[in-house]
Amino acid sequence: MTLKTTAAPGSQKVGDPGDRVFSFILRAASSIVLLILIAFIVLLVIDSRESISRFGLSFLSSSKWNPVETEINKIAFGALPFIFGTVVTSLLALILATPLAIGSAIFVSEYSPPWIGKPVAFIIELLVAIPSVAYGIWGLFVLVPLMRDVVEPFLQSTLGKIPVIGLLFVGPPMGQDLLTGGVVLAIMILPTILSLSREVIAQVPRLQKEGMLALGATRWEVLTKAVLPYARPGIIGASMLGLARAIGETMAVTMVIGNSSTKITPSLLTPGYTISSAIANQFTEADSPIYFSAIVELGLVLLIVASVFNILSRILVMRLVGKGGGSHA
Amino acid sequence: MNPIRSFADLIPDAVPAAESRQGAERSIAIRGLAAYYGKHKAIEGIDLDIGPGVITAIIGPSGCGKSTLIRCINRMHEVIAGAYATGSVTLDGTDIYTPGSDPVQIRRRIGMVFQKPNPFPTRTVYENVIAGLRLNLPRKSKADYDEVVERSLRSVALWDEVKDKLHDAGTALSGGQQQRLCIARAIAIKPEVLLLDEPCSALDPTATLKIEDLLFSLKIDYTIVIVTHNMQQAARASDRTAFLMADENHVGHLVEAGPTREIFLKPKDSRTEDYISGRLG
Lengths: 329, 281
What we know:
Chain A is 68% helix and 1% strand. Chain A has one domain: MetI-like fold (Orthogonal Bundle). By secondary structure, chain A is mostly helical. In chain B, 33% of the residues lie in helices and 23% in strands. Chain B contains 11 helices and 10 strands. In chain B, the strands form 2 sheets. Chain B has a 6-stranded mixed β-sheet with strand order 6-7-8-3-9-10, with helices on both faces. Chain B has a 4-stranded antiparallel β-sheet with strand order 2-1-4-5, covered by helices on one side. The longest helix of chain B has 14 residues, at 142-155. Chain B starts with a helix and ends in a 5-residue tail after the last helix. Classes of the chains: A mainly alpha, B alpha/beta. Chains A and B meet through helix 8 and helix 9 of A and helix 3 and helix 7 of B.
């Protein structure tokens, strides 16, 4: 076949003026989004250049954060404890929230009768609309005492006895620590992951499920061998969106994490600090140019951490789709 | 040209029923079957015998309940929320609707192929064929699986086309190949009956003819029921035909059933004749 079609896809000169105007609007819209991002990065780099040139890579590797010059301490800015706090609380949130979210997404879309599933899903999705400061207050007044008096002593007396894993639960239970920060984040990202996973699972074609049923599959096998493999890339994408939300979340975590960056230890029961809490707590106090510059660099680091997670998750999804994933999220 | 004459050209001379596989009768008796979607009744009063060693076609206008009927034969109808069936469907003397009978076991004995090819996209050609063998059964050796894959793909005349692509995704095959892959997947677990619900509706004429040839060779080992809206296909490829229809006064019901030759050339009911000659549906 050597016939040539007149309107090759992608050629812009062909078509009526309406098409061209619309295509111009689309281009403009996506360019603006891109420009905002570029402007954002440029601003962060410019405003943090003083800190970047003075501390270099030690900003990422040092744990010293001395904004004020004293006799014993020179001025130093090292963001490692903040990066650590952000990564630990976000991953903790992901680990805690994902199984719950996927479990309830499966229940709501595959197992429960619609008159239970639909209202349950609706209510859970309402949780997205609760402002993060409300989660913070609830965390501070309800979750922190609960963690301090009940959950953390329980964890110490059970998991804490196991070698290696026990290291995660060393120290006096204070309630305001990395673990509580992770739990609050998990609660906050749960509805995001749940509602996206539910949609992905609902989009698995009926023919895929019936194909498995017709081979003599049980309900469990239909789920694990037809539904979940098909929905897997989408579910991972949903979890990654949840993770992205956890990485950037500020207020709720700030209120329960303890905001202390003295030392990095393996224990989840030590108070911590996240990058975004540091920015929120300290930007009003940044009275010297170098302090301000360091705070801006924190913003840049947060952007980089978020991008690294994003790229890693893309690679993960691409690998799965490369193996023949069903829904190409 | 008189359309009825053209069917006479299509229908092969009467072929004696292929000899039954030993041990299994593989015959189905449907009695007083009605199927519902919630309060809506889709078919009622179906009495139909489906014999072994022959291909039975179910024909009828759109919406007459052909697909509903065939899905009642392996209890796939009830997987739709609110759907249920009453009456009896007997396979080798046992009613599959008797309380306590396990739909999972029934579907292992009565395989099904759907309107659109539905290979599992996350699995390779090889894994698609053995998908049924991997379900709550003890694991077999690689050699056993290899043997099943080759035998099943050979019986659907797909082996030579895909033997070098066994580890590619099942969805990378053409539409016709995918549908033959789905038939291979269905017969890999050695069912007694094979149900096909408009298996060629998404395929081109060449792929359609291949499937029909294939069914002809499979009827020795499997009792085959095929739903089709294509009357030429029913005439060409089936030994017996059942004609279903629905009208203002009745939901889907069986008008008549018999040898394909008789249904197409000397139908007893005038509605069958109207439908076959194109005056209906």
